[in-house]
Amino acid sequence: MSSRMLVTMALPYANGSLHLGHMVEAVQTDVFVRSMNAMGREAIYICADDTHGTPIEIGARKAGVRPEEYIEAIHREHEADYKAFGIDFDLFYTTHSPENELHAGKIFEAIRKDGAVEKRDVVQMYCPTDKRFLPDRYILGTCPVCSTPDQYGDSCENCGSTYEPTELKNPRCAIDGNTPLERRSSAHYFVKLSNYQDFLKEWTSTPGRLQPEIRNFVDKWLSEPLRDWDVSRDAPYFGFKIPGEDAKYFYVWLDAPIGYLSSTDHWCQEHGRKLSDFWGADADCDVVHFIGKDIIYFHTLFWPAMLHASGWKVPARVHVHGMLGVEGAKMSKSRGTFLNARDYLDAGFDPEWIRYFFAANLGPAPSDIDLSLNELKNRVNGELLANVGNLANRALSLIWKNGGRLSKLPSDDYAQGLFARGAKIYEDFVGECYRDCDTRSVIQRVLAVSSEANARLQKKKPWELLRTNRDEALSELTLAVNVARFCARWLGPIVPQFARGVEEQSGAKFEWGDFKPLEDVAIREPKPLVRKVEDADIQKLASKFVAPEKKAPETPSISIDEFAKMDLRAGKILACEKVPKKDKLLKLSIDLGEAAPRTIVSGVAQSYAPEELIGKVVAVVANLPPRDFGKGLVSHGMVLYSNGGTRENTAVELPADVKPGSKVR
Ligand SMILES: [Zn+2]
Ligand SMILES: [Zn+2]
Q1: Distance in Å from the first CA to the final CA of the chain
Q2: Which of 9, 88, 254, 368 is the most exposed place for a label (fewest CB within 10 A)?
Q3: d(CA 161, ligand 1 centre) in Å
Q4: Ligand 2: centre distance to CA 168 (Å)
């Protein structure tokens, strides 16, 4: 274990406001950094706005300002929002910095010297009125496979097919609607990622780097030669010019992760430190990245390869968290189930409420979490306030009214053994959980310790004892305060204000690894540690978004007769292969108990390697009309999948002993 850490979270894109999904990551990373620092490691928390690319160039143009002004305004807003949620960065910088331009140029040059850069011509769609090449997301047209109109240049939302923008029917420019578009050729720079395949296999298989679920994912990518990566874009573009080129820029995804390193450089200059102490290949430092599921490829393949090729330190660990839903629905602007960080603050919600809520729901695995406002209320009121808060507040209030001083711990074994037990819980459990990002378990353990102390208080009734045996009563209350201090200390990285309240009111600071009782000191006047969540609060925030249950159901109900028309059957997957040039499709051969197996096409190639599906018994819709995928590929049915797990799609599997062809009801 290195003595210092450099911790980052994914850089928010500078073309819009932060939403609560951003805050899941910010809170998880912040809690991690605070806990590492509390445990005596030097952990530096670095973040920046990700400021380059076509969306920002176009967004600024629409707003009628220069891109520099556009990203500056967003930076101020992002910075204020993070601060309001208690996110304690050492630096929140920008990728549009001189340091980043310098390091991006140097790293690219190092990759080129390493023989992994190739320049070659690419044919792309070009809009003659905008005078620009159009990225996939800026081309709209009719799907070449299913003829659905208004699809993007890379994939169809209706049938899931992927294609080249040049295959799209009736393509038009998404910026100004111009048609027809031209095809033009331009030279692009490609990084031959496959040159680093062996290094990446070794890096990803080193224990501790990736969560097991994520490693499985990445292994699949690494089981085939990695595709070359186009790292250049033509003007007009907002970004850094490629050295030696006139109208070519680094693709935003090249310089965005370099922002981790260049922002550290800026911080080092401001603090008289050396960049090489953090990012040098032999530095006594662990680089740890927190990211969401959507950018795994960039952080586990591109980024380590770039660092390796340019002689910097490769990340010690990449931690992936799940996505945030709201009231059981995906966060979606179009569906109205979307909450900005500002909405939360403007509704008068305490940031510590959601920090606690997120931490109570986050574990070491990259599982998705759901924001239920009722659960938030129940957890804050029932756990943080009624359990830990109440223990502290009740004991401190009685002491305050009876002399305002802690006395001595009771002399029984339980009370005298408290600190030895606390030290053991810390050593065996709390520290380990924080290292694993298992804040859910930290909270459960703290609540158990606090419940035990509340139960003892309830049994000993010091409020009655005060009349008959004042010394014993004060001893009991002193014990309760000491337990509350343990609990608050361990919750400190999650709810720092709450913890500080307990610390201040009980009369002395606490240190993470200090296991001596606090006795015979004056306390301060107790005050509520956190405000209670009221129903009126919930209503106020809920009015900012459309709760899914309030809307008309998206799928109308069907009769049992209609359901009975569906021929659902168990099918055994005999073979499975990729479909050439369709990187979302898998072609399955499925035994449905019929004379011959059926061919069924599934759009799940991103979720499964072909060999993973072979042998599985799955649920199949057997009476759909055949669907033509072109080039002789016809699907005769559909395999059922569920979303919401680690994979985007998880096959609905039946036990292996279910015979092929059996009815599913
Ligand atoms: Zn155009
Ligand atoms: Zn389609």
Answers
A1: 54
A2: 88
A3: 25
A4: 10
E-assigned strands of 128-218? Answer: 132-133, 139-142, 151-152, 169-173, 182-191
- Measured from the Cβ of residue 108, the count of other Cβ atoms closer than 10 Å reads 25
Query: What is the pLDDT, as a whole number, of residue 644?
Result: 64
Average pLDDT per run of 10 along the chain, which is 665 residues long?
A: 94 95 98 96 97 94 95 97 98 98 98 97 93 90 92 86 87 90 94 97 96 94 94 95 96 97 98 98 97 94 97 98 91 80 95 98 96 96 96 97 97 92 89 96 96 96 96 97 95 98 95 90 96 95 71 64 88 91 88 90 87 92 87 89 77 91 90
Q: Which two tokens stand for residue 255?
A: 């310089």
Ligand number nearest to the C-alpha of 163: 2
**Residue 131 CA to ligand 1 centre (angstroms):** 7
Ligand nearest to the CA of 158: 2
The structure tokens 């994939």 sit at 155
Q: How far apart are CA 281 and CA 269, in angstroms?
A: 19
Taking the centre of ligand 2 as the mean of its atom positions, its distance from the CA of residue 576, in whole angstroms, is 22
Residue 655's CB is within 10 A of a number of other CB atoms, namely 7
Closest-approaching ligand to the CA atom of 126: 1
Using alpha carbons only, how large is the chain's radius of gyration in Å?
29
> What is residue 548's predicted lDDT score, i.e. its pLDDT?
55
- Give pLDDT, residue 665: 84
Question: What's the CA-to-centroid distance between 128 and ligand 1, angstroms?
Answer: 7
Q: Which ligand is nearest to the CA of 145?
A: 2
Question: Rounded distance, CA 41 to CA 46, Å?
Answer: 16
Nearest ligand for residue 150 CA: 2
Tokens 């912040």 sit on residue: 30
Q: How far is the CA of 585 from the centre of ligand 2 (A)?
A: 12
Smallest CA-to-CA distance from 28 within 214, 279, 288 is with 288
Ligand 2 centroid to Cα of residue 566, in Å, is 24
